[in-house]
Design a protein that fits this description.
This protein has 207 residues and is mostly helical. The chain has one domain. The chain is 64% helix and 5% strand. It contains six helices and three strands, in the order H-H-E-E-E-H-H-H-H. Strands 1-2-3 form a three-stranded antiparallel sheet, with helices on one face. Strand 2 (66-69) and strand 3 form a beta hairpin. The radius of gyration is 24 Å and the shape is elongated. The two termini are 30 Å apart.
Length: 207
C-alpha cells in the first residue's frame, strides 16, 4: 500500500475514534431524557420559562405540566416536550466529538473537557430554548394575523428548527475554537501529514 493510502487509513481511524465516544453518549443519553421528569422540569423547563417570561415581561405560573407564561393574546406553555433535553444531548455529543479529535488541544476526552463541554452545552441549550419560545411567540402572533389556523403548527415547528439549527452551528463553532486553544495558553497546532512522493523510473531517466 502506498504512503498516501496509509495516511488515508490513519486519518479515517482517528476520525472514527473521535466520533465513537460521542455517538455512544448520544445513544445512551437520548433514552435517558424520557425518565426523571422532575429533573428535566427543574433544570431545563424552569430556567427557560423564567428567562422567556422576563424577556416578554409576562407573569409566570407553575402548572401540573410545566410552566405557563401568561400573555394577553397568546399564552405560552413550557412543558417537558419543550425542555430541550434532546438538543442538550445532541450538542454535548457534538462538542465531545470535536474535543476528541487528535487535533484538539485538550488531547482527547478528559473529566475536565467533559465538564467544560457539559456546562457550555447546558448554557447554550437554555439560550436556544429561550430564543425558541420568544421567537415562536412572535411567529405565532404573525401566523394568527396572516395565515389560516391549519398552518400555525407548521410555523411553530419551522421556527424551532431554525432557532435550534443556528445554536447548533454556534455550539460547533465554539467547540472548534476551544479545541484550537491550548488550556495552558497559546494555540494548538495540528500539522497536516503529507505523503512523500517516490521517484519513478521516468523521473530517474536522463533527459
Amino acid at each position: 500500500m502506498s504512503n498516501a493510502g496509509n495516511i488515508r487509513v490513519t486519518i479515517g481511524e482517528t476520525r472514527f475514534s473521535a466520533i465513537l465516544p460521542a455517538a455512544v453518549l448520544l445513544c445512551l443519553a437520548l433514552p435517558f431524557t424520557a425518565f426523571f421528569p422532575s429533573f428535566w422540569r427543574t433544570f431545563f423547563c424552569a430556567p427557560t420559562a423564567g428567562l422567556a417570561a422576563a424577556f416578554l415581561h409576562a407573569p409566570l405560573t407553575a402548572t401540573q405540566d410545566g410552566y405557563l407564561i401568561e400573555l394577553p393574546i397568546l399564552a405560552v406553555q413550557v412543558t417537558l416536550a419543550c425542555s430541550g433535553a434532546q438538543f442538550f444531548c445532541l450538542l454535548w455529543s457534538l462538542m465531545m466529538a470535536v474535543g476528541a479529535s487528535p487535533c484538539s488541544a485538550w488531547h482527547g476526552l478528559t473529566l475536565r473537557s467533559l465538564a467544560v463541554y457539559a456546562v457550555l452545552a447546558y448554557t447554550l441549550t437554555l439560550l436556544a430554548n429561550t430564543a425558541r419560545v420568544v421567537v415562536g411567540w412572535w411567529a405565532g402572533l404573525w401566523a394568527r394575523r396572516v395565515l389560516p389556523e391549519t398552518f400555525h403548527a407548521g410555523v411553530h415547528l419551522i421556527t424551532g428548527i431554525i432557532v435550534f439549527t443556528c445554536f447548533l452551528v454556534a455550539g460547533y463553532a465554539l467547540a472548534v475554537w476551544l479545541a484550537s486553544r491550548d488550556p495552558g495558553g497559546g494555540r494548538a497546532c495540528c500539522a497536516p501529514r503529507t505523503a512523500t512522493r517516490r521517484p519513478s523510473q521516468k523521473d530517474d531517466a536522463p533527459n
